[in-house]
Write a structure and sequence with these properties.
Blueprint (H helix, E strand, L loop, with lengths): L10 E8 L6 H5 L4 E7 L21 E6 L11 E13 L10 E8 L6 H18 L4 E12 L5 E9 L2 H6 L7 H9 L9 E9 L3
Antiparallel strand pairs: 1-3, 1-4, 2-3, 2-8, 4-6, 5-7, 5-8, 6-7
Length: 208
């Protein structure tokens, strides 16, 4: 049985990390094969501090998710890193058009020296822990299969989580009083906290 309890089929896609300080979202989302564009949500990034995470912007300015068949991404000079990932839906169906919900993406670094297959197995198995101990409205795991560029050194996965409101962010992130400890203990089996970074983003659906 799939440890992630997938809600749908695995989909190979590409994730481009941009360092363009002012990405043209309208132009990017109009390109063929672009699934969505995530822009750092500077207006709400302060909410990270309420979950004991650094409330600072990442080194990238936007994530562009594209189908593998297209080469119609941003200009090469603006792409700092390219990640090829296998997308695993876990639960929820609002990630691709989240409206005003809070969407957090995390670039997950694996423990130093951990084999890719070991990381993937433990990360995917974490989905069941998350299902029990988080109150997310939607959750998706993206396992990195190859990478190029310098902004995501050590990144082995990209997690996407969604909570519908700021109230849910504050009060439903964890399901029980013991959930934070249980989740924390599980992620220590595969995740390097010093290399993992999270931020809130605004997602703009593309035409793919």
């Amino acid at each position: 049985m799939d440890p992630g309890g997938d809600a749908g089929p695995v989909e190979p896609v590409r994730c481009l990390l941009l360092d363009d300080p002012d990405p043209d979202v309208v132009e990017l989302t109009s390109r063929p094969g672009v699934i969505s564009v995530d822009v750092v949500d500077h207006e709400r990034i302060h909410l990270l501090a309420e979950r004991s995470m650094p409330a600072v912007a990442p080194t990238w300015s936007a994530l562009v998710w594209t189908a593998l068949w297209t080469a119609a991404g941003p200009a090469h000079d603006d792409v700092a890193t390219t990640l090829h990932v296998d997308r695993h839906p876990v639960w929820g169906d609002h990630l691709d058009d989240p409206g005003d919900a809070l969407l957090m993406v995390s670039l997950v670094a694996s423990l130093p020296g951990m084999e890719a297959a070991d990381f993937a197995g433990r990360y995917r198995a974490h989905a069941e822990v998350a299902r029990t101990h988080h109150g997310f409205d939607a959750y998706r795991q993206n396992v990195v299969t190859s990478r190029s560029g310098h902004l995501a050194d050590g990144t082995a996965a990209v997690s996407e989580i969604l909570l519908a409101t700021e109230d849910a962010w504050r009060n439903s992130f964890y399901a029980t009083p013991s959930s934070a400890e249980i989740v924390g203990n599980d992620v220590t089996r595969f995740l390097d906290r010093t290399g993992t970074s999270s931020t809130l983003v605004r997602r703009f659906p593309g035409t793919a």
